[in-house]
Amino acid sequence: YWLSISGQPSLKNDEVHWDGVALDITQRKNHEKKMWQQAHIDAITQLNNRSSFNKTLSKLCSSETEKAFSLLFFDLDNFKHINDRYGHHIGDQVLISFSQQLIEAFSHLEMSFLARVGGDEFCVIARHKIELTKQAESLLTKLSLPLEVQGIKLYIQVSVGLANYPENGHSAESILHKADIAMYSSKDAGGHQLRQ
Fold this sequence. Notes:
Blueprint: E1 3-12, E2 15-24, H1 26-40, H2 50-61, E3 69-77, H3 79-86, H4 88-106, E4 113-116, E5 121-126, H5 129-142, E6 147-149, E7 152-154, E8 157-165, H6 172-188, E9 193-195
Parallel strand pairs: 8-9
Antiparallel strand pairs: 1-2, 3-5, 3-8, 4-5, 6-7
Helix pairs in contact: 3-4, 4-5
């Protein structure tokens, strides 16, 4: 429940009174919240979206302190096959399940930022490369087990690329490009592995 209150004090019969108006702005605030979510949050996974990711990555790369961080770029291997064979409703459930696994694996890391940046592409930013790499390897092992979605057993494989700031570049574009190249190197080598 939101109220907007405006007014001013007045003097009546040697007593101070407050004259004003209170407006219920709950509907406006709810609309603002919905608009913010549409601009920053992916509707399917509830992770940050590409726009939010780009802003965060650019801000980190333009920081005057130049603190190191690492970026993981994930691409679900053969995701199109899942959509084509089982339908988009199953594909969406796979995206949701994978995003939940990302949250479990990475959200506790220092400065973690998780985003869905494309149809089957996800990025994770965190401060420490060693912890990030360890969690990525653990996630790859966990994904070796089948995922059950509405009674269908699916094996999800993921190609993962890693880039590090500032050693792999000083701009958001160069860091993302390096992670993308590493991810395609993983895919070319058979997928379901981490490359840098």
